[in-house]
Amino acid sequence: MVLEILRPTPPQDNTGSRLRKAAVRASTRLSWTIQVYQGRAWTIESGDAAVICVEPYKESQRPRKDKALEAIVRRFMRIQVLFDTKEQQKRRKEIGTKMEQLAEATLGEMQKEMVNLASIMTKPEKQGRGYGTALGKIVTDIADAEARDSWLFSSNVEANTGFYNNLGYITVATFLLGDDNPTWRERPVTIALVGTSAHVVV
Fold first, then answer.
1. Residue 66 burial (CB < 10 Å; 0-12/13-18/19+)?
2. Which residues form the signal peptide (predicted)?
3. Higher pLDDT residue, 188 or 131?
4. Residues 73, 29 contacting (CB under 8 angstroms)
5. How far apart are CA 69 and CA 34, in angstroms?
């Protein structure tokens, strides 16, 4: 999702520098490694597909060493952002603000009691093998085992809606990124909030 909002930037933006790519790779790999270590993430074939599951109601129970590792990840993420152009920083802020506002307006305090499918991905050349479905089911199984609902934000809505529907998710609300940004060179990106709860309404 982040790549979608960062790529269509003005030509003068240096989004492809080697240093920036190295920073993105390093922070991404570190983040996923720590998430797996903490039991929040699962992968297939050493990263051909991966998913992150966050259970907010368990966060206070995490040991101190986990919190220290998370602090390291946050620092690496800040380093990555340092390589962003002003336009990219603006877009990161836009998506963060809009996601937070929509989740609060739609889910409110329910967020704290729900399971969040924070990230799921499959390498393009590995798609069609059922990896994403298997990983998505891990998250819904965790939620079902505790009689909880789960939710997530989805980009690339046209391609992903059917996938999430098959896992039991429904689209609850959407918003646009780039609809009021004159530097956006492609059509605005639609972001959907989807959930498994019939009680989640706008």
1. middle
2. none
3. 131
4. no
5. 7
| Dihedral sign for Cα atoms in the order 37, 40, 44, 49 | negative
Place of tokens 């520098």: 17
Q: How far apart are CA 192 and CA 1, in angstroms?
A: 11
Element (H, E) at 117: strand 115-122
List, in order, residues 6 or more apart from 37 with CB less than 8 Å away.
69
The dihedrals phi and psi of 164, each to the nearest 5 degrees, come to -70, -35
Question: In one letter, which amino acid is 200?
Answer: V
Cβ proximity of 30 and 23 under 8 Å: no
Q: Which two tokens stand for residue 34?
A: 């720590």
Count other Cβ atoms within 10 Å, centred on residue 120.
24
* Each residue's pLDDT tens digit, 17-66: 677 777 777 777 887 888 888 788 999 998 899 999 999 988 778 788 77
- Model-level pTM? 0.82
